[in-house]
Structures
1.
Amino acid sequence: MMESLLRLEAVQASYGQSRILFDVSLTVGPGEMVGLLGRNGMGKTTTVRAVTGQLPTLGGDIIFKGRSIRSTPSHLLGRMGIGLVPEGRRIFPNLTVRENLVAAAANRSGRPDPWTLERVLALFPRLGERLGNWGSQLSGGEQQMLAVGRALMINPDLLILDEATEGLAPIVRDVIWSALRQLKSEGLSILVIDRNLRQMMEVGDRHHIIEKGRTVWSGPSQAFLSEPSLKGRYLSV
Amino acid sequence: MTLPLLIEQMLNGLQSGVMLFLIASGLTLVLGIMNFVNLAHGSFYMIGAFTAVSLQLWTGSFVVAAVGACVCAAVAGLAVEYVCARRLYARSHLDQVLVTFGLIYLFNESMRLIFGPQPLASPIPPLLNGSVTLLPGLQYPLFRLTVIGVGLVVAAGMSFVVMRTRLGMLIRAGASDRGMIAVLGVNITWLYSLVFAFGAALAALAGLMSGPLYSVNVGMGENILIMALVVIVVGGIGSLKGAFYAAIVIGLIDTLGRLFLPSAIATIAIYIFMAGVLFVRPQGLFAASAPPQVEARDNGNRVTILWSLSKSRQRVTASVVGLCMIALALVPTLSAWLDDPFLLRLFLRIVIFALMVLSLDLVAGFGGLVSFGHAAFVGTGAYAVAILGWHLDHGEPLALGPIVLAGTHDALVAWPLAIASAAAMALAIGAIALRTSGLYFIMSTLAFAQMLFYLASTPSIYGGEDGLQISQRSTLPFIDLGNRPTLYYLALGLLALCLLLCWRLVNSRFGMIVQACRQNERRVRALGVRTYLYKLLLFVISGVIAGVAGVLLANAELLVSPADLSWTRSGSILIMAIFGGLGTLFGSVVGAGTYLMLEFSLSEWTQHWQIVFGPMLIVFVLLARRGLFGLVLGRGGST
């Protein structure tokens, strides 16, 4: 197996007294799209928070680009190349669309073809029409596009999307998914949490299922599709 | 009034407005971005002024002095951020208020130690000495024009940086979502320190320019700080634009008010203006369409709720309280036995302050309404007693509109009137302040109390700044209050009664509702409760208890003065409440006792006791979260 870009080894984490993650292990290889599946409250978002330095881990290890990042602060992870599209989008409502995109933009790894405002607008033409609007004036779908665009502007090596299509109209969801497909074809590594199994299996390479803070299944899309019982056991409500 | 004079006064107003902006802009940025209340911001103004004056006298160069003052304040700002502020970003506003209050003690006393108590005078730099003819018949000092110019340039520069540069975008983004900014690879810690130091430098800039205009003295920071807080409340927290316009308007109102309004009104004109703004727009005039995350922070981590304790702990509590009361009842005997009248005097003060703290604990501990102007209600009660006595002594009837009172020393008349005035004051201030919440509430109660402070300081028949002597204690049938032990027992009895009533009150349905409001007001409102009325009633009840304390204070001291209404007094009451532990009721006695005995023993030891007390307060707030009473009871009592 090729050297993975991101590797979680038996990660444990908790919110105050309540333990959420007991044993989460997963890998994302270069250029791979990996899905993180599981029911509500099983620890998917907590895993993302641990990876992005927003929640300290209690045990296990997180390795990114061959370095342990267990106690690395958020902002250094951003600089190392982890881009996050967070749950609830969290765009800056008091900044314009343009400002949201350029505020934190950076090309720290000196990429020859960096993400620029123009490239993001080409990916999401809708944002181009809204450049001067405040973040608070956007629709949910537009906010989501902006959140993806903003994460791309720091030129990440790994893009993490947490429920990026939650609550969006199907037509907008398709826009996001086709963008993800394009990003993947350009070689970006992506870790994605989403409820849309059909798209996940179609675009994603491999998947991990989390149940009560533990990774209980890992495998490629084909393996998931050939085991219909997985869906009933771990995903249906 | 000639036109040139009017223009001159308007320019003066503009000048004081831009200075206010220099203070308020740093304060509002720190508030908006870090959600941090820095009461010690005025200290940077003071540090700037002192450093500039001494550097100027030493080197003779205004430029060196100016640069030195800004650098010095920026370094002080960095130190404050690094040592204190950083640990408090995630804590409640109350903790922030207390720690920065401790910093004020520390800074003021340090300046007094270094530069002595005398105000310093600062020369106008020779280059800026003289005046300019603006219009025929209108000469205007060059220095003041320079101040206006510098202020406007800084405002324009800040507006450019914040609205047009990447740094500004990050600052604004940080104001709405700090965590997200970090995830995007921005070092938020560094950004915070930078903004903090920059704000301090701006305050110092105002301070060094104030030197040649006003006198440079210890305490200069607090007056301007409160005006800056008014500016922020009026302009909207976190809004630079709001701070600018509000500062100019308030500078103009303050300056022109002194020209056109009677002096009593002129000193409080800006507070009246603030009240008006809060009444119409509780979020301030320029609150951003998407306001920064300046929300009410539950101070629940400071609150110890007794009935959530186990039965055995409740029994322990009851016995501790009982023993305390018995010990307090023995004080007059002990005092007589030791032949030490001071002991009784000290404990009378403790009992009276315990009532003030109890009154504050009721609103702050149970209602979550951190009032930073509680001295106003105590002072109202005290002044009412003094004023009624004065009118009797001087044979001048007191005319309140159609009602004419002869004045009295009779407790049965004066005390209910005094307590009613305190309650009425609480009703009036509460009615406006309760339209706001969180930080705005803290600041507006502070500003309203300050309004009363200035009103009492205005020269009048009631003594102005000197205060008002009371010729005798109030009279009661069968009881001689002239006898200090009798007054003490009466005060202790009233304290016990109020404790009991408060205990019943917080355990009643009413008490449950206000406590629920503290935790989540929106949810209570969704249950169909008109929370505003509940909070207002709580505030008025608290005002009644404060009024009782005021009546006793007037009788104990036989002197009322504006100091009884000052914001430092309000701050002390708040510190006592924290010492004792919020939401404990009985902690009020512990808190008042600890504070006053500490103050007494420290001031016996050194005249600069505040330089010890300030850091003690800071350490206490940073380390002991639930007060002494909470510490005694141990863990398990938190909500």
Note: Chain B has two domains: 3-225, 311-569.
2.
Amino acid sequence: MMNAVMKPKNLMIVGLLAILLAPLVLPVYQVTLLNYIGLYALVVLGLVLLTGVGGMTSFGQAAFVGLGAYSTAYLTTTQQLPAWLEWTAGSPWAGLLVGLILTAAVALFLGAVTLKLSGHYLPLGTIAWGISLYYLFGTMTSMGGHTGVSGLPSLSLFGIELDKGEKIFYLIWAVLVVAIIITRNLLNSREGRAIRALKGGQLMAEAMGVNTFRSKMVIFLISALFAALSGWLYAHTQRFVNPTPFGLSMGIDYLFMALIGGVSSVWGALLGAGVLTMLKQWLQDLLPMILGSDGQYETIVFGLLIVVMMQRWPGGLMSLLVKLLPAKYRQSHDIKLNDQAAELPRRELPNKGDLVLEACDVTRKFGGLVANNQMNLQLHAGEILALIGPNGAGKSTMFNQLSSVDTPTEGEVKFLGQSLKGKSSREVAQMGMSRTFQHVKLLGTMTVLENVALGAHMRGSKGVIPAALHLEREEEQRLLKEAKYQLERVGLGDYLYEEAGSLALGQQRILEIARALCADPCVLLLDEPAAGLRFKEKQALAELLTKLRSEGMAILLVEHDMDFVMGLVDRIVVMEFGEKIAEGLPEEIQTNPAVLEAYLGGAE
Amino acid sequence: MNFQIALLLGQDGITNGAIYALLALSILLVFTVTRILLIPLGEFVTFGALTMAAIQMGKAPALEWLLLALTLIECGLDAYHFRSNLGSKRIQTMVLKVAYAVVMVVLIQMLPLAELPMAFQALLTLALMVPLGPLMYRLFFQPLADAPALVLLIVSIAVHVAMVGVGLLLFGPEGARTEPFSDTAFRLGPVMMKSQTLWVILVSILLIVTLFLTFERTLYGKALRATAVNRTGARLLGISPVFAGKATFGLAAFIGSLSGILIAPITTLYFDSGFIISLKGFVGAIIGGLISYPLAAVGAVAVGLIEAFSMFWASTYKEIIVFTLIIPFLIWRSMTSHHVEDEE
């Protein structure tokens, strides 16, 4: 019995039933409180997306709520609208539309000026925006200044007038449930994987062809739109607006709700909004009694609570609750694979022996230090080239020049005949170059399968809206199938649903190769792929690389393990002090006096 | 507007701008050394001003009890943290800290506060305020020294929110203004210059020069700068990040409360006035790109001037104008920046 109830799906049904019954059995005051909780949770949901998933934050959400509320208040209460707004005819639905459009415009602007900068500018920018809008509301005499406007019409839906708290209750909670579903859908999709990579994996995501700026903008926009929607509902629930609930302190409260509930889960939004609202009610009664004077003393408790939570339980109440749950009820992955899905189209590989990647006199200086000096190398299709050299020889710098993470001071890199000058690592990835990282970069809490599917990001095209509505399931299945295929190919087929962070370091390196292969590249750049691998794993890796070579892939690897390199590669380029000291077949390099001197110090 | 009004507004603008510049510099200092955006800096300003006002009215400001309470909590946490090797040196430090707080409580209760000379009142205020800086770092931020920048920002906001509540509890909802340092005024062309204005400007310049010399010429200053450049590297060279954090917070508390004492005779401050004041410091710091000290100082003075003049032309839009000032700088910086960053 207990088992049956605890299943996520059944829990949802119980929850929905509770929502349906609540207004019928609860007193009016409690229903009003639930209305507020629903309205707040909608805003907080956006913050969960922004803060918990995206690793950014905003203090301006209350101002977006205000924009939604004031837009509809203006349109529905103004007697004589200006001519260009007459079409709205005082309809709340036009108010919703205008509010959403205005909000989107503001969010796009704020995002455009802050999201390319380091992480501090968005919160600071939203603080400035929140304060400015609050003062603006206060100065608008046509909207009643600080006293506000009253007499907003109530909403009516399918002929039912939602003029009472217990009626609009259903609309508020229906909107919230839809918003939660949409958010969960979005996160469980190709776009969602790109969004989840924002927190701690931006460099990697860009190398996989993800436009991280766009992903950031998407979630900032969604969070702003959720807030504006909440504001519209608020205005027609209260049927009165004034600037106070849209000030910065409310913006901070929203963030506190998200943090207390837990920013890593959409349910944290609901929990946080509920807990903080109840706690506030209770503290506002209790504290003035204890302290003997009126005032908003609950801020002391909230402030300290947040500090303690951040120090002790940064995951919020939700993560504490999940820990209390027996392991079998904890939600694991909900990824379904369909082996019948069609295969993704493959890129036409260049003919064997064709020149694909070429460094021409590449020089890179860091101030006075010349890390690469006049480096030349060529990589052909169907060839494995190793770049070796002692520590500090400039191999990693060279690797960065080749993969367009860095730009040469002089000289240029050509890929498939095109110069990479001015190209971002994202564009290069789209041209067909894929890479792994010396220090593995993967998203530790995501499954192995999803990590690898991120590599196939460029091979899908469905955007945010199909993802939110789950209209892109067919493409999603194809992407996941490709990820599974590549994982099986590298020998990680047994670990599809493990958390990537739980793999051994050697396996994580192999996972990176699978991810790179998922991008269907024609050039593969591998940064120390064999480091940390056991003998058997090295053998398997060598086999895989040999097979890829025979298919026509061009592979460049930077490696320290000489046994691995000598038995596998076609040619070797040796670097020392930023310069090429030798190039040739493995046997030639092994006997090259300059190389021996570089590695062993030579015989005096 | 005539020349006289322009001079008057300019005088106001420069006075406020000098304070914003001081705040912008402490914001930058704290940010570069600890990665924390010190939002509660404004509370140091209001607490300083309101404590000074309470002292001048002969009332015990109640801040001394906060100091004692936080010191006791700190010592308790330290004692727990070092419970296995609580050397005599540590015990000595703890005893000294508690003794200091107790002495402050006794002084505040015993001294005839209102009759003290003003310089002594200011000194007493600073003696109460400055230790709150390191205490704040120790209690709220030190356990999170390695946390992501986002977490530090959130905690910073949380501390600000809590301190506003504490301010209400300690000082009540009434605003306060203090006596000016001296009553003399000077004639500058057609306008009278209040001596307080000169005090503010002189002290600000003095502080900025001192800060500059400290950071350029002394070992401790260089140690802090080293921490700002590379925390791990500085630690390897024996510079304790805890020390760096406490020292910068102490400095911020000093600059903040001194700013409060300086402007208290000019502006009426309330328990919740600090936020807007520190945010204007932040506008200056953003104009300086969160890196450049001179640019931040110039930006902050510009904020003060623009604020004063918009007060004249469009007083209701004053705050809006000041906060939208950052937009052109954000646009310019976005256009020139290309980097993709991973979370530190």
Note: Residues 439 and 475 of chain A are 31 Å apart (CA to CA).
3.
Amino acid sequence: MVIMRRKGHIYSYWLILPALLIFGIFFIAPSIYGVIYSLTDWTIGKDKVSFIGLENYRTILESEELRLAIYNTFLYAVVVVIGKNLNGLLLALAVNTKMKLRGYFRVIFFLPCVISTIIIGLIFVPILHPNGILNEFLSTIGLGFLTQQWLVDSHIVMFSIAGVSIWQWSGYHMVVYLAGLQGIPSDYYEAARMDGATAWQRFRYITFPMLAPAFNINLLLSLIGGLKVFSEPYALTNGGPGNASQVIALEVFSKFGRGQWGLGTALNVTLAVFVSVIAVPVLYKMRKREVDE
Amino acid sequence: MMGKTMMHRKTKDRIYRIVLQIFLVLLSLIIVVPLLIMILGAFKNSTEVTAFDLALPEQWLFENFVTVFEEGNLLTAFKNSILITVFSTLITILVSSLASFVIARRKTKLSQFLYYFFFMGTIIPMQIMPTIRLFTVLDIYGGYLNVIILYAAINIPFSCFLYTGFIRGIPSILDESAFIEGATTLQTYFYIILPLLKSCNITVLILLFTGIWNEINIPLYFLNDPTKRTLPLSVYQFFGAYGGSNWNLVFADLALAALPVIILFLFMQKQFISGLTEGAVKG
């Protein structure tokens, strides 16, 4: 009875305060201010900041460079989502087999994701050079027609950058899929085998639906990460050649460097809107499905 | 008859496993080769390295590492990274687990709201220039402090998410017995909850440590003093200075910068792999 009466205040809200203050003041408040600043002509060294309405957003829509950056960001996100999930799933299915070297594969494929993306990016700069080892290797094994000007050709540079990110993170997604696979009771497969189901049918009707939670998480993580992309193009091309590999976060950085803080903030807000509009429905669906189950 | 098919299946399985392993070993070369190019290149001289291949160095030039250590100011960068990572990680763990304790236990609308309020921070990207403005007004822009606070602010959401999920799994009867004995919420947290958080703490610790250690965006915007540069930032600047002429030194720099985490990872593979993915899996 005593406990019941005290229950209301024994878990004192005061304990939330430190986290709430740090998060509220240094994350949420600037986010709100960002929306306001994005409507101004805020530039570095200017004393008076005045409202200019949606002018910055109009500049974004009218600028070919910024439109390209937005396009590239989405292109990159789509490519990495597909690449990381496909690789991750295939690797997980392969590594999930009981075998001697299983531990080794898990560690090796996972290894790149503990290394800084900047370091990974810089390692790939010479590898992707027109005379680099990748092209040399392709020529040597008779796939010379696949050689590319990986980071120089403006049509494929985004794909090359996405490729490096897929190289780095596939192992991560593999481990998440592996956890999902190990959660599937093995008697499901036994039963299916008894009923004469083929390998494909077992995958299609057992593995695939049971992997849905792992798939959702991987999708969400790779999608959000893809839209926020910065380090990969920063290390590999710094937006070049020309502006061919500019992405939104890189443009924010360049506007910051040029002192166009109002415009930079408008770009930053644009990115936040894109990420929320895409991620929140996915999340909502995920939660709903979990509740339904 | 039955025995024969069983045998048949067994040998087929064994062959399949061998073929699969050979294939995966070849596939793992895709991961190993770029890293090997870096490591071997770090020992070569500046002309030899430009082949960017897997040839062994004619002479193993250990002095490259000495040069890099001095020219690249690696020691300073290393210290900066340690300082920033340790403090922001500790602050985040402390305040997040405290907050999560209350959020997990209270069943009110307010606690539900706070849960989602924090959760927002795991999705939306931060607003950079308004944050710089805020730190400038507070007169701490450009130094260690603003980076430490910022890393805490950015990482509190996901940490709270993990801790809340974990603490919900701890029976609340445990804290109730402490309350009956007259303990305050804070005492209950320290004596009852904190000791039980060990595995969650390790998860969050590894997640924050690798994340902050490897991150470059925040230092790029928020550290304007070259002596306060973190490791990834120093590596990028070193590349800017030597990338044209001395790739052997760049590789030595990259290798030295990557080494601490790689060594930690190899010694604690299990904790790292589960630590970095558990958050995703639990979510």
Note: The first helix of chain B runs from residue 2 to 41.
4.
Amino acid sequence: MRKITIPILLMLVACTPRIPATFDSVDSVPVIFPDYTDVTIPGNIAPTNFLIEEGADSYITVLESKSAQAVIKGDKVKIPTRKWRKLTAAPEISIRVYGRNNKVWTAYQPFKLTVSDEIDPYVSYRIIPVAVESYEKLSIRQRNLTNYDEKVIFANTMVETNEEGTCINCHHYRNGETDNMMFHVRHFKGGTVLVLDGKLNKVNTKTDSTISAGSYPSWHPTHDYIAFASDRIHQSVHALSHDKLEVLDDNSDIILYDIRNNIVSPIENDTSQFECFPDWASDGKSLFYVSATYQAPSGIPRRDAVFLDRFKFHYNLYSKPFDPDTHTWGASRLLYDAVASDSSVTWPKASPDGRWLLCCISSHGVFPLDQIESELIIFDLKDFSYRYADELNSPFAESFHCWSSNGKWLMFSTRREDGVHTRLYFSHIDENGHFSKPFALPQRDPEFNREFLNAFNIGEFMKEPVKITPWQFASFISSTEATPSRYDSKREK
Amino acid sequence: MTPKEKNNFTGITAKARWILPLTLWVVLSCFSYPFLLKVEERSFFEFDMAWFIEFLDKPSGLLSWLSLFFIQFFHIPWLGALIWILLLTAAAELTRIMFRIPQSCSALAYIPAAILVTYNMSLGYMIYYVNLPGFFLLPTLGYLWVLLTVAVFRKVSNTATVIILSAVWGIAGYYIAGFYGLIGVLTAAVDTAVSQRSRTFRLSALISVIAVTLLSPILFVETTAYYLPSGWTVGLPDYMIRVSLTRIQAPVIAAMLLLVSAPLIQLPKLSFVNKTPSYVQGILLIAIVSLSYTWWYKDPNYMAELKMIHAADNLEWEEAINTFRDISEKSEKDKSWQPTRIMVVLKDLALIKTGQEGDQAFAFDDGCKQQNTICGVSMSMQIGWIMGLHYGIPGLCQRWCYEENMLFGWSNVSYRYNIMTAMVFGNRELTEKYLNKLDHTLFYRKWSREQRALLNDRELLARTAPYDQILPLLCYDDIVTSDLAGLEMFLNRHFNGPSPMESTPLYDRIALLFAMKSKNSTMFWTRFFLYLESNNPKKIDRYYQEAAYLYANNGQKDLLDAFPIDDRVKDTYKSFMQYASKYGKLSLEDARNCFPKHLRETFFYYYYYVNELILF
């Protein structure tokens, strides 16, 4: 026995990288990808594996916290999960990288990871190849944030791809709980797939009196309502701009869907106003939305007119009081006059604690994802003061953000890595509304974001995984016709 | 059968075994090379472990990966053709050996291989719709996998082993080869059933194989996110089209059914087989070859398109022009011949890139021959990225690259155009991302290194082809647009739109050509004077003179003396008008018959007689 044990122990000792005893020092932290230097991370997040890009022959990385130490060899720093759990038990992890060139070790300045509040354990997002018209290979997936497990919720490839093909979008959950969730299916047997208390339903919210089926959903936090935009979307290709696409509505309203009674009623439907992106306040007593004023000129097809006039689309931010018990709406109130500042505010999302409202802001238009200049702007709902969230913004588009259920974390889409492929980043917010340096969704292979040629889109936090299997969704979608919703214009606006 | 007859059989088959593949290799290398190049350009293979692992996600992924590995050698068409033919020959010879096909009818062994060749070579425009990585060699490799499976099962002699083997080999085979894995175990089961082994053994084999065949795809669909019926057909060529797939996949299915039924035929036991006269074998071989070749897609316009597209992809503009010229000259006797619009627009682009458009743009027959295919392919899908990049509309190039990638996966050609577009946009991170991919390829790493050298030097980039002729075209204000109504019409709109505030000489030259193509005299005069101002030519090119002379004679007579017009142009105009007054209005086809070549090669002829073009 001893004969076996000693060599094994010797091998283990030989395999454990040694921290260099002598080394030169440099004043900078190492260049790593993704950039996790000096970020704040949730205590329950998966290991933030990274790649060191200093061009050295070999590397030793030492991760240290009060509770543990890990030493990892190589340019790809893949942190063992058990070790990571011990490391994150302490409030701060210090990471020091040593690089060796010509047998001389160099120590880079250490950087730290601050361990903070826990984050919802799951997120879901769309994975979509970058394209304009095609959608065949689109899927909605759920990712366990505490490890790297990713599963398909539903994919377009699970039904026919030709005449009987579908396109899915707008996945959404009631308060992050998956027993009540929804997503849209377009084209063949299209409709809104609604999971209500764990049971599958499909409804068609397009009525003769609405522009389209509901889109951009916001589930009421306490009552059985979903606010939707009802809009006709068009897209056109830029010839010469870093923005690939211009996406505009040629008409839009916002509607309320009464889930239990399958009734659609108007919230705002002024024909000269293009209302969009409804979002409930955390108490459900008001609805945030954006709206632009536009009167299409006569003599030109409306679709062409909106693209010609695309720079005229400035979306203001509004809120509209609502009493969910009596289904009574109050008068809309302007919160941010984007027209006055020649800008456009979109995608309002209120934090669960009711304190903050985060929006996208750009020079014009309604679709921040495809606008390189799109940035995030934060409003303090106490006094409606606002500021650009510069700590989150990059030279490329920031968009489609989402708050964690405890209101401590923000997830947002950004194209900062290469201008084209959208990635999910996270940031912590403190009590003063300041965000920590954002960091990329951790991946098992740190080079994943470089190699992966599809885009992540519309991240949504979830408290639990979706329990319905992809094949239950597929079978239901293929076999079930959508129940038409009823339109009731008399319900009070 | 006498020994002499036996020798005859052996002689014929032995020679055919070499002559057939050799002939096929020569034909493929010399005449079908543009098609083989297209196959390679629309595929992608990189030496990268993570990329390899991605293929293991899906049944038949490994076979796809292997197929892509071989397809990369089509970059050198004779080498790719040789590899393919070796695989086909192996398929035919192994079929002969494994199913004990007697020498007297060994030509039968070549039937499945001939079907596989026919399937690939009859694709034509369908190649733009294939949605399966490695589609070209996958059926051939799948066929070989089936033979391997039969060989492995024949080694088993006891019941327990056959059950275990069915489960292990069946499931592993399904993951490696998909549809072909299932065909493999089915063929092995049939082979076992007709063998002389015990009844229990045969029954066990059949039951376990059927179980594997049914269960494997169900396991697969439970663990992945693909359409349920595709579980059984994964690995069969798939097409993004709205026509019956079965019809297109039929040859591959036929080849596989032949394999499944091969053990049942038991050729050596058939008495007439051994009595077959030697000439029947010869007839059979000729019939197989002739039938196969009959089904090949041989449209000369298609081949010319492929050659021109390949030339444009590699910036071999003279080659593109020569291809057009060659086919025009060869078709001179066939008065009904017309080029396709793709040929015309590529020829025009090549003339612009070589600065010859002023003297050559109307020197070729024009036309709009429809593609000879059951399912038309839009011009944008074929050359959208070429036009977008080289006409200075990088957004359009990028858009079509991404559409292609979404529908059919990334390819060598889409990586290259994505890289060039990212270079034009000056997006360093994106360029690096794509260059890293090509760095891992066998045949594009050199090109990748060359591009990387330009990444940090914008000035060098501006002096290097193709960017030297693209960057000067980015002088207009950004527009949002769509080419879904037709690429050619889109380009017409683009260059016949408002003049850029600060246009460049190259832009003005192109805009002038598009004004002439659109036959709009007002636009012509605007563009013509801009061209004169920015290019300041020592001598005005022939076709500009012809257009100016024609439009001046038709209304702007005061402009006749505003610039020098060659006497030759005036004489040609006079001669042309005499013909025109003699024939009056004519269809494009009739005009081609009536007008002599030198008058057909004028702007006057284009203006008056090229009128029935359907632009795409």
Note: The two ends of chain A are 82 Å apart (CA to CA).
